[in-house]
Amino acid sequence: MTNLIPPGLILVLCALLIPCTRGYLRSLLLLGLPIFVLFLIWQVPDGTSLTIAFLEYSLQPIHGSAVGRLFATVFAIMLFAGNLFALGQARTTELTAAAVYAGSAICITLAGDLLSVFVFWEIMAIASTAVLWSAGTAESYRASIRYLLVHLLGGVILMIGIAGHVNETGSLVFTAMQTDSLAHWMILVGFLINAAAPPLSAWLADAYPEASPSGSVFLSAFTTKTAVFVLLQGFPGAEILIYIGLFMVFYGIIYALMENDMRRILAYSIVNQVGFMVTGIGIGTTMALNGVAAHAFTHIIYKALLLMSAGSVLYMTGKRKCTDLGGLFRTMPVTTACGIIGALAISAFPLTSGFISKSMISQAAFDEHLATIWLLLAAASAGVFLHAGIKFPWFVFFQKDSGLRPADPPLNMRLAMILFAALCIGLGVYPEPLYAILPYEVDYVPYTVHHVVAQLQLLLFAGLAFFVLLPQMKRTLTISLDFDWFYRRAFPFIIENIFSVIGKVYHPIQQSFFVRLNRGLAFISQRNGGTSRLLSHTYPAGSMVMWVTVILAVYLFLSFITH
Amino acid sequence: MLTHLPVLQVIVPLLAAPLCLLLTRSRLVWVFTLIVSGLAFVISGLLLQQVMATGTIIYELGGWDAPWGIEYRIDQLNALLLLIISGVSTVVLMAAHTSIRKEISPDRHSLFYILYLLSLAGMLGIVATADAFNVFVFLEISSLSAYALIALGKDRRALWASYQYLIMGTIGATFILIGIGLMYQMTGTLNMYDLSQRLPGVENTRTLFTAFSFFIVGVCLKLALFPLHLWLPNAYAYAPSIVTAFFAATATKVAIYLLIRFTFSIFGLSFSFTALPLQLLFVVLGLAGVFVASTSAIYQTNIKHLFAYSSIAQVGYMIIGFSVSTVTGLMATLLHMFNHALMKSALFLALGAVMYRFGSVKINDFHGLGRLMPYTMAAIVVGGISLIGVPLTVGFISKWYLLMALIEKGWWPVAVLILIGSLLAVVYVWRLVEVAYFKPPVAGNEAVKEAPLSFLIPIWLLVSANIYFGIDTRLSIQVAQAAAHSLFGVSP
Prior knowledge:
The complex is a heterodimer. Helix content of chain A is about 70%, strand content about 5%. In chain A, strand 1 and strand 2 form a beta hairpin. The longest helix of chain A is centred in the C-terminal third of the chain and has 33 residues. Chain B is mainly alpha-helical. A two-stranded antiparallel ribbon of chain B has the order 1-2. In chain B, helix 11 packs across helix 12. At the A-B interface, helix 5, helix 6, helix 22 and helix 23 of A face helix 7, helix 9, helix 13, helix 18 and helix 19 of B.
């Protein structure tokens, strides 16, 4: 079976059954399907097991590889937990779209040719738009259209890159590429747009927070991580990725610190985390690539966990701003505990999954003697702890008493959170199973005295900084960018200022881009406006004849003067 | 018998047309017309097979030697076009009996079929003949019957649209005639092959440049290249649905055939692309057509208008492929002619089904159509997806070849622009999908039923062809490749 039809495609096709089912049957389908697909993923052997002739090329829709299997596995696990979380509250459209979305992401991870990647890339864009859309609010609809436009644009660039690549090499096989030709640059740009790389990073934080509570859980996992996967396969060691990645790391931190909406904080933190991975791909050693794969795996789990806890809060209270929340730990103990575990994992606290994966990327930078990059990554780790590790749980669950007394969410939501919280701790304590499925042999021991002590030091100081600066952190919307806490880690002063300036200049540019986009959309939707009349005006025969005369005159003129 | 296939291809529908007058009952005429068209389809299939096997077929009418007699010359290019025209005509005709009952008054039914056959014969004739003046004669046969067919539309504006088409079409045909006349004046021959031999001798004369300019403008008017496209939207929108489905798939293709035939086989490549800066002109006009027409399509509320504008945009793609003037570029154009015929006939026939149930094809009629007419709407969605150029549909194949042609040539910006242009197609197709699946039906429409089988069968035949030829591309690509190679004079 697995050499006839790709496992992801089975998921996509079975997703279409979801609208036809009700009640227990649907729950069974939603929970059983990801497990079945996970089983199928592990049946796919290494190498190409299905070749289809198309035009003069051959497509390889099933092509097993260690790294592909790793991503496919975590996608299937993610869909399972996401479905569990969404049971009973998400709309049919959302559940169907999420399954199609996950299925096409899995197809990409197991595809051996660029055209298959492109096809599922586009299906993913449409399915994720549908996930966004099923939140059902006017704001989510507008956000989904903006989101779709950015992704379709990315698809266009990718498509041309692929066509150029085929023209140069005559083959569609998806192998590692160099940034040596226009076509390859376009492929890289197409991939990077999905990874939320600059200058179009804003699509992510613009769209994800508008999804439904479960929708944002699904969205956080697939698009950016598929982009990480294709970058890992296509451009390992491309130096420019180091700088793009670092930019994303700090971009994410800066905006997350300024943000007040809890899910937007987490959205910026996705950019930040993907930035770590992109940097790792840019470093490109086996240690770095292992680290990227491992980090993608653990990141999907803890980020989903964080978004689930934020989603639970939103679901139970209907509020999403940090300034409206606080003190929820009294009545939402499970959500609080799971949120804290997620926050510790994202901060790479020892004994959590983040610790065993993120440190591999830093270690790779260290091994390659990339001192500046290593320092920047270390500084960024402290920044992550500030914005996601402390800020999110502190303002949502502790801080002042907001007077809200919501209960913990329904059982299925709690179970989903507990499952992922357990995975976060489990992988942190016992990382060997994850290390065993990494693409290259692992020669890394996370729990050395030096690693643990250094990480704890870093987190301790960052934590201290947070509480020292608490009065300023509270005015979240007007906070000025002050990077005092980085001094302690000997972070060059000048760089902070550069980033703060970039932040100040960059943000309005991005804002104005989206404002324009919105205006453009509003303009198009006014179908009775002036444009409409201009474009569909019925012309009298006379004016048509005039055009003919003009064209004839021009043609005659041109043919006479050129000779 | 087999040796006479080239002439039978044209003569059968031409002679069958007046016979319709004898069969007065509508259903009888329909069956007769369908058989005649089917026959033409079989003939074109046989011709294609023969051409692919043995090469160009030359048929001398009445046994008179060319250049004194008229000859028909069937090579891969003609054969492909003949197949497209007769094939689409046959499938579309299957729904004709049902469709025209609602759109044309019964006393005009035989008239409709007569005109239809004449128009079919005219188009087949244009493609089959190897005589430049014969081209004009058949052009007039097909055009005059087309004007009358469009005027049969039940909307009163049909008459006016037909009148405008008449004016513009006549100007176009006259320009083509002037071009042919000037060529005749310079060379004293009308046979295409003969012309191609003698024209190089008079290459650097103003008369020939003038002939070329007149011809190009005339043919661009016929193929609705921006900005000479203004006659098309109304003509397509107000014509009877069957007529729209037939013309949208074939009429502009025939004009593009003429463009390719005259520039490649008669004037010759080097003359055609140096007499005028044709490459630049056509790329610019083609792109302008893609963008202006696609944007216009987004604003239309009459869905027939919407897809008519989209046809203009698609012509833009074909012209861009032509202007690349490489084998791949020409292949892209030929493939898109074949593929676009499949998409647009499927789409307009599905609109015919909507017209049959609602009496109009306004965007309001599409509210909730996904539930009211699930099979028709699904066909429109697949057709639309094909129009956008999604893989596994025919639309992707031609877009891919166009993209490859542009990249081979190094025209990256054009490649980017045509793909952005196809995003506009996403927008106008999405508008339909959105109202059809996410809006409830407009009050009063809730009881509308699915279209009858006589519609659904031909619609889904065409839709399946859209998918089949998107996956199994042997036929279309082989023929297009052979045609492109022979036009460029290279052996494959």
